[in-house]
Amino acid sequence: MKTTPAILAMLTLLSAGSTFALTGCDTTAAPYSGRLDPAQPYPKVSVAPGLYKLVAFTEPTVTQGTGSNPLQVVTPCRSTQDGITRVQYQYEWFDQAGRPIGESGWKYVVIPARTQVFLESNALSTTAKDWRLTVRPAG
């Protein structure tokens, strides 16, 4: 039996049509799965991209809360440039289970050229057991 180009074209169309008919009715799509965060564990101190080369941090002093005294954190921060650096910073507080329980609010500080300052805050609750610090440019 000899196949002609017309028969080949018809067979191709029928095959493609049946494929579309079988898959065209499926309207349910799987949800996108969450992407894993490459920053694990999340850093205690994070800075906005523009500040990455302008400020440096050393080991913070953490005073755990006892009784009626809340958790306190003091983070040394130094400008690495010749001009002044204006920043805002905010501490976030977390309970024993890692749930957020409050923020310090944004505070403004001017860091003189190549000078160290201390970014500090007390937790708003005695249930705070952990913290994070975020620093961004001011203005």
Question: What does this 3D model show about the protein?
Answer:
The protein is elongated, with a radius of gyration of 29 Å. The chain has 1 helix and 9 strands, in the order H-E-E-E-E-E-E-E-E-E. It has a domain at 46-137: Immunoglobulin-like, CATH 2.60.40. Helix content is 14%, strand content 37%. The strands form 2 sheets. Strands 1, 5, 6, 7 and 9 form a 5-stranded mixed β-sheet that branches. Strands 2, 3, 4 and 8 form a 4-stranded antiparallel β-sheet that branches. The mean pLDDT is 89. The chain has one helix at 5-23, and strands at residues 45-47, 55-57, 61-63, 72-79, 85-94, 100-103, 107-111, 116-122, 130-137. It is mostly beta strands.
Distinctive features:
139 residues, five-stranded mixed β-sheet, mainly beta, Immunoglobulin-like, 14% helix, four-stranded antiparallel β-sheet
